[in-house]
């Protein structure tokens, strides 16, 4: 009897291993993964298994109502948060924005319960920064696209590559910040369209042409650091807002859906530029 049980256990384990191996092969094919030798692949496979276990454990909590978002295998599932840090290219600066006015919410203003600027035509489709730490450029074009739409009634996709190549105070794919991008567009009297200056996900020579200008920037306003009420008010009254967040946790890397909340994230150690396009409530959770 013990022999039968042992054989059965071995068969079950072999079947489970076979399924995981199949998932791994499918993962590599889907995301066109290439590794530097067998040892490198073995290390990424180990990370893949660890992340799959983390996802399964987290999603059980989601099913039980303990957390507000789901995680899933994506193209980063074979990497640690440290390995993807080069993609989080927001670089805070010791230089304060002394000349930028601070946004002041109107005292006692009644804000809409829900705002989603995507529905109002202010936001272009989702873009992919690729293997380049240019989040700051995408955050910048997102808010500029919204403000140019508010001004002209036309939604024009603006060139992140223009910013990557031409904002000398930033480091292109090695990081930058949105305020420097806004100042560049203001002083340059324009930014090219994405169609005329397409994204390459690498540093290249600046080739801005005023003939292909798709938008301008007259200036920017800062929201008081850490002020959620200020951010909510600005989002409601101004449009999509460029912000920086702490995206260093593995939960962000493997996020799939729902209201993302990470109790251990920092409000001061910020590393990723993103775009706020609205706010509201989902399943009782405010976002």
Description:
With 287 residues, this protein is α+β, with helices and mostly antiparallel strands. It has 7 helices and 10 strands. It has helices spanning 2-30, 37-63, 135-152, 160-166, 178-188, 228-237, 250-253, and strands at residues 69-71, 115-116, 191-192, 213-215, 241-245, 255-258, 272-276, 278-279, 281-282, 285-286. It has a two-stranded antiparallel sheet with strand order 1-6. Strands 2-8 form a two-stranded antiparallel ribbon. Helix 3 (135-152) crosses helix 4 (160-166) and helix 3 crosses helix 5. The radius of gyration is 22 Å and the shape is globular. Keywords: Disulfide bond, Hydrolase, Protease, Signal, Thiol protease, Zymogen. InterPro entries: Papain-like_cys_pep_sf, Pept_cys_AS, Pept_his_AS, Peptidase_C1A, Peptidase_C1A_C, Peptidase_C1A_papain-like, Prot_inhib_I29. GO terms for molecular function: cysteine-type peptidase activity. Residues 1-16 form the signal peptide.
Summed up:
This protein is an alpha+beta fold and 287 residues long. 37% of the residues lie in helices and 10% in strands. Strand 9 (281-282) and strand 10 form a beta hairpin.
């Amino acid at each position: 009897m013990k022999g039968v049980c042992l054989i059965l256990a071995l068969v079950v384990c072999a079947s489970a291993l076979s399924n995981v191996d199949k998932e791994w092969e499918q993962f590599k094919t889907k995301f066109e993964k290439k590794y530097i030798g067998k040892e490198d692949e073995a290390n990424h496979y180990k990370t893949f298994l660890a992340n799959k276990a983390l996802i399964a454990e987290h999603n059980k909590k989601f099913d039980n109502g303990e957390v507000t978002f789901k995680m899933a295998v994506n193209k980063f599932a074979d990497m640690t948060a440290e390995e993807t840090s080069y993609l989080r290219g927001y670089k805070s600066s010791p230089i304060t924005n002394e000349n930028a006015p601070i946004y002041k919410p109107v005292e006692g203003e009644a804000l809409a319960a829900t705002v989603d600027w995507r529905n109002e035509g202010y936001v272009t489709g989702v873009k992919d920064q690729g293997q380049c730490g240019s989040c700051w450029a995408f955050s910048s074009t997102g808010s500029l696209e919204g403000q140019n739409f508010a001004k002209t009634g036309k939604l024009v996709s603006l060139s992140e590559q223009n910013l990557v190549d031409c904002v000398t105070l930033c480091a292109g794919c090695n990081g930058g910040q949105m305020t420097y991008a806004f100042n560049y567009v203001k002083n340059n009297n324009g930014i090219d369209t994405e169609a005329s200056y397409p994204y390459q996900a690498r540093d290249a020579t600046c080739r801005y042409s005023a003939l292909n200008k798709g938008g301008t920037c007259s200036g920017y306003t800062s929201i008081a650091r850490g002020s959620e009420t200020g951010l909510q008010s600005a989002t409601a009254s101004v449009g999509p807002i460029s912000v920086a967040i702490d995206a260093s946790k593995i939960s962000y890397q493997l996020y799939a859906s729902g209201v993302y909340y990470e109790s251990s994230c920092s409000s001061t150690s910020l590393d990723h530029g993103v775009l706020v396009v609205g706010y509201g409530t989902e399943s009782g959770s405010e976002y």
